[in-house]
Amino acid sequence: MKILSIARSLSLTLLVLAGAAAAYTESAAEAKLSPKQQEKYLEKLEVNFRASRTLQAGFVQEKHLLLFQDVLTSSGTFSFAVPSSLRWEIKFPFHSLLIMNGRELAKYDFIKGKPRKLKLPAADALFEMFDQIAGLHQGKFSEQAEKYEITVYCGEAERLVLVPKDKKMRRFLPAIEIRFSRALDSVRSVLIREGGSDYTLIRFEDVRLNPELPGGLFSTQQK
Question: Which residue among 29, 100, 155, 218 is least enclosed by CB atoms within 10 Å?
Answer without folding.
Answer: 29
